[in-house]
């Protein structure tokens, strides 16, 4: 029915005396870290990729469509906003390609992103539409409601539609104002099928201005002789129950080519295990994909007066993996990575992993920091498997002091590194984990290790032992003091060891270009060498550093 109405509408448009310009629409996509969250055992970013790829194939020719993305390049940045694809016609493939490579990681500057999208669309001069897809609320201290009111007052014909992907009703109310204040719609999308519906209405079926006479000429298409002439169904195992409304199943219907393979554009797509449809008589191919991992093709023929029944057996089981540091842990570790691999497919979940896997060998790799464990699971068709994956990792809380029992080091410049307790043949130790800053944490495997700390020219280390699941505070004594030097008019300051080597040279500890310099040094005597521009002779001064103390030297 829609197809015939569309042809009638096109005829009306071609007959009109005025040329109607296509709308300009910008999709603003949330790629913040929370998009790794799961709905029905699939990550939200995975669902968004698949959904956009399908919906964009149905965008009317002539629609000027662009893509803006936020939160995909930097953690903690409110300015991580990128115009990924400039608005234009025929941009569907470019948008799909860009989204397929996204790796969510950052914050949610949705207000600023919508504002930038409006500016790019020249909303004060032309009709413009923004479609925001977000799974979270504003995290960058901006007011989306106030922005919406400002855009509405300045815009020629500006509209924002908002799709709350996985938001609660309360969260949805906090962002719905972006749509309501600009005359747009708010869509609550709690699963893949609802996301398809929201994007189809706002992007693929977005209305264009059209002459009234063209609407009047569109006639309804007669109802088919049968309610539905094709019934699709799928199961996990032979003889098992239908997957019914399970939206982890993604169907695509294509015309079949001479070899019985999918040809041309998608005729229909559905996120359901079972559904019905109507198609003209002919040869077709249905492609059914279970959670982006297991793909099946089913050729079928539609005949007048008959009902075709494409059927798929995925031959798969449903698996839930709980990553834990120890067998006794009550909660899954949300930071643990669980890599799954089967039948040539692989992906990684973070935290609890819920997915479908083909019958046969399933390989699991769990990671927490440098701790890695690998297991193999046998999966049977129709089986539900739920098991723990114990990765066995401890946590070190890094601390440092300047002297035994003395002042704690409070600095983000301290470099902490956990190294192997045993040395290599050349005296070095294998690096296990590292981080900057006092009070930071490091994930480490259970066993014996050494924690080292370096600040300025001072270093310290301490051996420690840790158990799986244990959080342990480890304090390193760097045995150092601070030497602060002021040399008015100087262009170069260097700190040298007071003791000369066998060649009569002093070891250079550190240096700086300028009139001031400060370094953290082991206790002992030092020589400060100061140089000046022009013909001014260099100067030297002596200094002594004590552990846990600050020494200040002025060279005149």
From TrEMBL:
Domain VWFA: 24-203
Name of the protein in its database record: VWA domain-containing protein
Chain segments annotated as coiled-coil in the UniProt record: none
Domain of life of the native organism: Bacteria
Gene3D superfamilies xrefs: von Willebrand factor, type A domain (3.40.50.410)
Cross-referenced Pfam families: VWA_2
Residues spanning the membrane: none
Signal peptide span: 1-21
Source organism (scientific name): Shinella yambaruensis
Keywords: Signal
């Amino acid at each position: 029915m829609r197809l015939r109405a569309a042809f009638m509408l096109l005829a009306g448009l071609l007959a009109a005396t005025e040329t109607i310009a296509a709308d300009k629409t910008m999709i603003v996509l949330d790629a913040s870290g929370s998009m790794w969250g799961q709905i029905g055992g699939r990550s939200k970013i995975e669902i968004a990729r698949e959904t956009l790829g399908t919906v964009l194939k149905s965008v009317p020719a002539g629609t000027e469509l662009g893509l803006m993305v936020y939160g995909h390049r930097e953690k903690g940045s409110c300015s991580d906003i990128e115009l990924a694809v400039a608005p234009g016609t025929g941009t569907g493939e470019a948008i799909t390609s860009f989204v397929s490579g996204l790796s969510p990681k950052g914050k949610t500057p949705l207000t600023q992103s919508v504002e930038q999208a409006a500016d790019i669309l020249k909303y004060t001069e032309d009709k413009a539409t923004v479609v925001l897809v977000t799974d979270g609320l504003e995290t960058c201290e901006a007011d989306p409601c106030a922005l919406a009111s400002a855009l509405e007052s300045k815009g020629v014909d500006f509209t924002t539609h908002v799709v709350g992907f996985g938001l609660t009703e309360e969260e949805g109310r906090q962002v719905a104002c972006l749509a309501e204040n600009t005359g747009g719609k708010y869509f609550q999308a709690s699963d893949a099928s609802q996301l398809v519906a929201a994007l189809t209405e706002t992007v693929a079926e977005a209305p264009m201005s059209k002459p009234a006479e063209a609407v009047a000429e569109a006639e309804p298409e007669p109802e088919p002789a049968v309610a539905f002439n094709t019934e699709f169904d799928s199961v996990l195992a032979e003889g098992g129950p239908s997957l019914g409304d399970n939206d982890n199943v993604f169907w695509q219907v294509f015309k079949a080519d001479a070899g019985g393979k999918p040809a041309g554009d998608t005729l229909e797509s559905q996120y359901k295990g079972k559904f019905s449809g109507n198609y003209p008589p002919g040869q077709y191919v249905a492609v059914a994909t279970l959670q982006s991992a297991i793909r099946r093709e089913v050729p079928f023929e539609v005949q007048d007066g008959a009902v075709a029944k494409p059927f798929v057996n995925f031959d798969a089981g449903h698996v839930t993996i709980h990553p834990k540091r120890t067998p006794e842990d009550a909660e899954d570790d949300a930071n643990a990575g669980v890599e799954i691999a089967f039948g040539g497919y692989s992906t990684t979940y973070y935290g609890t992993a819920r997915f479908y896997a083909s019958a046969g060998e399933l390989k699991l790799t769990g990671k927490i920091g440098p701790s890695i464990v690998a297991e193999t699971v046998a999966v049977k068709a129709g089986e539900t498997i739920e098991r723990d994956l114990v990765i066995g990792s401890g946590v070190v809380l890094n601390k440092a002091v300047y002297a035994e029992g003395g002042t704690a080091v409070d600095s983000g410049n301290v470099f902490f590194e956990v190294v192997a307790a045993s040395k290599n043949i050349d005296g070095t130790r294998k690096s296990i984990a590292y981080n900057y800053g006092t009070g930071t944490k490091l994930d480490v495997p259970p066993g014996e290790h050494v924690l080292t700390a370096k600040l300025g020219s001072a270093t310290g280390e301490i051996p420690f032992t840790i158990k799986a699941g244990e959080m342990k505070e480890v304090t390193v004594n760097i045995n150092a003091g601070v030497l602060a030097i002021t040399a008015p008019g100087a262009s170069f300051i260097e700190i040298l060891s007071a003791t000369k080597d066998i060649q009569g040279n002093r070891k250079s500890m550190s240096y700086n270009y300028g009139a001031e310099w400060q370094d953290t040094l082991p206790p002992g005597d030092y020589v400060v060498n100061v140089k000046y521009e022009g013909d001014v002779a260099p100067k030297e001064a002596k200094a002594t550093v004590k552990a846990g103390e600050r020494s200040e030297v002025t060279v005149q």
